[in-house]
Amino acid sequence: MQNISSVFKLSALAILCMPGAALADDTWQQAPARVSQAIHGGVGLLQTPTSRMAADGDLSLNYTDNEEYRFWSVSIQLFPWMEATARYTDVRTRLYSDSPGFSGDQTLKDKGLDVKFRLLQESRYLPEVSLGFKDFGGTGLFESEFVALSKRAGDFDFHLGMGWGYLGTAGNITNPFCEVRDSFCNRPGGTLGQGGKISYSKFFKGPASVFGGITYQTPWQPLVLKLEYEGNDYTEDRAGVLAQDSRWNVGAAYQWDDFTFDVNYQRGNTLGFGVHYRLNMHEASQIKITPAKLPVTGVKIDSSANINFNQLTHNLYYNAAFLPKSIRMTKDEFILHGQSLNYRDDVELTDRVARVIIAQLPENIKTIRLVEYASHMPQVEKLINVQDFIDVAQNNLFQPDLRSTYVRQQPDAAALELVNLTDDRGFYTGSEIFWVQSFGNPEKFYMYQGGLFLGGGYRFNNQFSMNATAKLTVLENFDSFNFKVDAQESALPRVRTYVREYVTRSKLSVENIYGHWQQEIAPSVFAQAYAGYLETMFAGAGAEFLYRPVDSTLAFGVDLNYVKQRSYENDFGFLDYKTVTGHVNVYWQPEFLKDTLLTFNIGQFLAKDKGVNVDFAKRFDSGIVVGAYAAITDVSSEEYGEGSFTKGFYISLPFDLFSISPAKGRGRIPWVPIGRDGGQPLNRPIKLIDRTESRSPFYD
Questions:
Q1: Residues 6+ apart with CB under 8 A from 212
Q2: Which domain holds residue 387?
Q3: 250: which strand partners?
Q4: What is the reported pLDDT for 18?
Q5: Are residues 467 and 538 in the same domain?
């Protein structure tokens, strides 16, 4: 085995020291290897990962089952070189707690996160190489690190890896880092703080094992066979010491459309199976029924007196889904102010609006000035060159590019003064569906609450309004909560951990009632102020300022709020707790990470702890956004409690994917592993970054 160790270490070292090796033969091409999900989630063999990655944008929903464990996992290919997996584990041989009154006979549930990075892409002569971390935060049931190599030869895909932690408990190879420093010879036990923190001190320490295997693509295309040798001896499992008659595992995976069904035989004595559903978030789409675009003939009318404005506004509304507010013409410009209603895509919207206008455009008009409004404020102005647009629309150019025919810019102050817009005023109503969910609770693994937010208000003008929202619960199983008061000791004010009391108080409750003022106080500078019952748990007053230039990759803002905690016993009472909370907010779309938004909120949170919340959001071509956030504050993990710091994940889905006609708006599905009191922001009813989305679109 020492010879194997030496060969593996020398081979891995040679590969990692050759970062340009993948480019040695630019003519080498090979179809992507067929991949499938491992038992724990993420691309792999059975119990072990491989170096392979799924297709960019793939999301896989997985359920796998064997005698001791059940796994629910979601694996996402965020970038071609990065895979992330979130997992819940049901340990069938352990109870959730020793107290039947607390959790009944529910079995132990555990959550985990994995990540894998591709370091080297496969070339003609060299393998693909990846580095990964399993269950790297939390209780660490399957905590491990690994380096994996994969090389394909025809229908066979060969895999070799070295693992530490859970993947390396058999210790069938000498830990190469142990030979460099003695501190790597032993792996520390336990978890950091109250769990949830990344255990850097354990990385690549303790016993190591070689693992690997082969996948074979059979002549029958839906079927793939797997053979695996693993490096875990199952002596340190949370389910107990498991009998292992063999370290060789075998399995088969059968693909049917977007589903994969697999069976496996593990440890020489255990049968398992799995079901997986795949969705590519770049390719997800919905068939659309839209009116035909108006043709661009190039024939223009003689003068503005011959424009049929009734027909023009009708076509703007029904063909371009654009609500006109004002129309004005100068010597050589057509000026249109209005609001886009349905189209998420800026190019398609501009194309449709321009076609409607050009169909009735006088010969003297050279430029269309289109001012778009959102939330009753002018957001962006588009200057459309009429002749350039006609050339592109009529395919008169070799490479027509409609986007090149117009410029997006800050609305021109002089152009705004040319029109006399009346304020929108009066009563308004609205409704939306809400869905709250929670995983891993003592009473039940999955708990939910769903219903309607019923909103309404009165708008006095474009700047000031009064708003109110009622929450009507229709479906829920939150009544299964055994204990309303969170029993865990906390050194922090209870700003969020009374959540059970708030969500179970009444089927009908007041979500918010507040007054709101907004205005663009200078070019690209927006301001708002608000006061009242702001969210479920807090009332108060606050203000926000945001600087957001049109199509800039950077935006900056600040918010400041004075709030008091609402009572969980009635809709309008208060508890004694009050505080000042606010943040400096930075929004950045970095060029080196395509379709990515990084948000930094730096300041004081509700529990008076100070720090930063970092939000990472990745948008896919379909408009689906996957995000994760973490709040790191001056509260220690011991003071914070279980979870050590605030973190969460979410998927944001555009309504457009569920409608046969174009639609704006989106819904958000959150996953918050543990909600404690540290790192908690005020849920302000309105955020300027959302109201100014059309200035530098990310979500739409």
A1: 48, 158, 159, 160, 161, 228, 229
A2: 304-417
A3: 227, 265
A4: 40
A5: yes
